[in-house]
Amino acid sequence: MSPLSVGIVHPAFQNLKKAGRFLHLIAAVLIITNALTYLRQPDASTIFFWCQVIVAADIFILVFAGRELLAESPRFNLFFRLAEAIAFVTVGILLLMKGEWVTGSIQLIISAGYFYLFIAKGKASMQNASLFSTSA
User: Is 2 domain-assigned?
Assistant: First the structure.
């Protein structure tokens, strides 16, 4: 278990964990559908479209690759966090440029959270790697 994780044993949470894969699949399909519908609008931004496609692809990879891939190689998780952070910061900047201050600011706050997760997970994986290298 990651040093940033907390083990939670509760029946409702266990049911949610079992349904997580299906819920993520639905989220990815909805994001891709939204991206394709958005692209048909006359003033659609291709950057926003590609940000949505990247986030949906990120979710699809996580759904189909599964937990095993992330457990075997924690650096994949770092890559996904970085891709999500870049997508959210790009969307935030685009919204701010359009004058949508509230929504753009919310996107930038979300991206700051993803950057924090990226940095924290990176530090944790480096500490774990140094622990394993010194004990060998």
Answer: no
- Are both 77 and 136 inside the same structural domain? yes
Q: Do 42 and 82 have their domain in common?
A: no
- List the structure tokens of 46: 């291709």
Q: What is the domain extent for residue 100?
A: 73-136
Q: CA 135, CA 45: separation in Å to the nearest integer?
A: 51
Phi (first) and psi of residue 29, to 5 degrees: -65, -40
Counted residue by residue, the chain has a size of: 136
Q: What is the pLDDT of residues 58-76, one digit of tens each?
A: 889 888 887 677 667 767 7
pTM: 0.67
What pLDDT was estimated at residue 76? 76
- What's the token pair of residue 127? 């500490």
> Same domain for 82 and 133?
yes
CA 119 to centroid of chain Cα atoms: 14
Pick the last residue of a domain from 45, 69, 93. 69
Q: For 66, left (φ over 0), alpha (ψ -120 to 50), or beta?
A: left
Q: In Å, what is the CA distance from 12 to each residue of 8, 19, 20, 26, 67?
A: 10, 11, 12, 20, 20
61 and 105 both lie in a single domain: no
